[in-house]
Structure formats: structure tokens, C-alpha cells
Specification:
Largest sheet of chain A: 6 strands, mixed
Radius of gyration of chain B: 13 Å
Structural class of chain A: mainly beta
Order of helices and strands of chain B: EEEEEEEEEEE
Shape of chain A: globular
Number of helices of chain A: 0
Strand content of chain B: over 45%
Number of strands of chain A: 11
Distance between the termini of chain A: 41 Å
Number of strands of chain B: 11
Shape of chain B: globular
Helix content of chain A: under 10%
Strand content of chain A: over 45%
Oligomer: heterodimer
Largest interface: A-B, 25 and 28 residues
């Protein structure tokens, strides 16, 4: 069964600092990996996705993630945090096709002025 | 991107009553939709997979008689919480994928259900 593990339930960074949110996956087949962001009482918005093309994936709002098969990782980064980045971030994995996403437990990002 | 609309965004109901939540794919046809439940400060837990024209597939531990799912058309799935109790209070989110392999899921805005 596929799964993802997000290291750190809460990450706090200063405005302008590097954001690094960690995600490791477990999959018996080449995975499809996603990062989503959730603001309070809202649905999820896709930040970026990996679907076996380029290993470095660029997403919206300046976020990017690198797929590293040797480390089974798909960490999310942003060079400079903005106050508006404060939210809950979920890493997810999926099989190809019309199958549900399996989510990690989420990481709450706080940005300090 | 594709749009999934969920309604209502918030609902308060009395214990023992039923509540229906609608999930619509506005600009694509979704043969399958997924229903998740999210407790405060927790992740999304898959409740069931809704299949157009057939019975939903429920995850282990989800009461199918309490959480009735109907997927009568290619653009609408509904989740009915029957005989609601306070422990059913939660955030419910639906999602759907575009046809094709490896595509991301698009999510509704979520429904905050409070049972009093």
C-alpha cells in the first residue's frame, strides 16, 4: 500500500527565510506525488505534482519540490517565505488512474514577521 | 483547472436529523468522486469512493448506513449523514479527478457540519 510520511507537524520560519517541508513516500510502483495547501475552513489547492517527468517540479506561489527516488523523498521548498504562506500543507500519493489520494498527516507552516 | 463545487459550506443540524451535502463537478464529467472527512488539526481520511451509476465503495470502519452516498449523474455526488449525532460533527470534503492517469484531484470547498 502506498503511504506518505510528513516529518514535522509544525514548522515555523521567519518571513523571508527558506521554507522546507519534508515528505517521504512508500510505494511499490512509480508514484504520483502531490503537494496541496489548505487554508482554514477551505478545501485543498494543488501546489505542484510529480508524475514521472522532470524530477524538479515547480509549482504555484514560488514553491518547488524535488523527487529523489534514492531517498524516497519529495520535499517542498520555497526560497523566501511570505506571511501569506502560513497554512496547512499536505503531501499526497496516488496510483495512476481514478484512484483516491492518500494524504500525509500535514504540516502547519507558521511565518513570523 | 477543473472546478469542484461543494454545498453547503456550513450546516448546523439537530441530533437525529439528516443532512445532505452536494458535490458537483462544474466543467468536467466525473465518473468517480471521493469523500473525505477531516477532524480538527488532522489529515484527510478517505470515507468512500462514489461511482456513477453504481454503489459506493466504503473504507473500513465507515458506516454505510449512516453515510449514504449517491452518484446519480456524471456531475453530482451527494453524501447524506443520517440520524446525525454530535460525534458526526466534522469537516467533509469531496474531490474528483479528471480522466486520465496520474492527474491531480480537485477538491470542493468543504462542508463544516456541526450537530447540536
Amino acid at each position: 500500500a502506498q503511504s506518505v510520511t510528513q516529518l514535522g507537524s509544525h514548522v515555523s520560519v521567519s518571513e523571508g527565510a527558506l521554507v522546507l517541508l519534508r515528505c517521504n513516500y512508500s510505494s511499490s510502483v512509480p508514484p504520483y506525488l502531490f503537494w496541496y495547501v489548505q487554508y482554514p475552513n477551505q478545501g485543498l489547492q494543488l501546489l505542484l505534482k510529480y508524475t514521472s517527468a522532470a524530477t524538479l517540479v515547480k509549482g504555484i506561489n514560488g514553491f518547488e519540490a524535488e523527487f529523489k527516488k534514492s531517498e524516497t523523498s519529495f520535499h517542498l521548498t520555497k526560497p523566501s517565505a511570505h506571511m501569506s504562506d502560513a497554512a496547512e500543507y499536505f503531501c499526497a500519493v496516488s496510483d495512476p488512474g481514478n484512484t483516491p489520494l492518500v494524504f500525509g498527516k500535514g504540516t502547519r507552516l507558521s511565518v513570523i514577521a | 483547472g477543473a472546478v469542484v463545487s461543494q454545498h453547503p459550506s456550513r450546516v448546523i443540524c439537530k441530533s437525529g436529523t439528516s443532512v445532505k451535502i452536494e458535490c458537483r463537478s462544474l466543467d468536467f464529467q466525473a465518473t468517480t468522486m471521493f469523500w473525505y472527512r477531516q477532524f480538527p488539526k488532522q489529515s484527510l481520511m478517505l470515507m468512500a469512493t462514489s461511482n456513477e451509476g453504481s454503489k459506493a465503495t466504503y473504507e473500513q470502519g465507515v458506516e454505510k448506513d449512516k453515510f449514504l452516498i449517491n452518484h446519480a449523474s456524471l456531475t453530482l455526488s451527494t453524501l447524506t449523514v443520517t440520524s446525525a449525532h454530535p460525534e458526526d460533527s466534522s469537516f467533509y470534503i469531496c474531490s474528483a479527478k479528471l480522466p486520465g492517469a496520474g492527474t491531480e484531484a480537485f477538491f470542493g470547498q468543504g462542508t463544516r457540519l456541526t450537530v447540536v
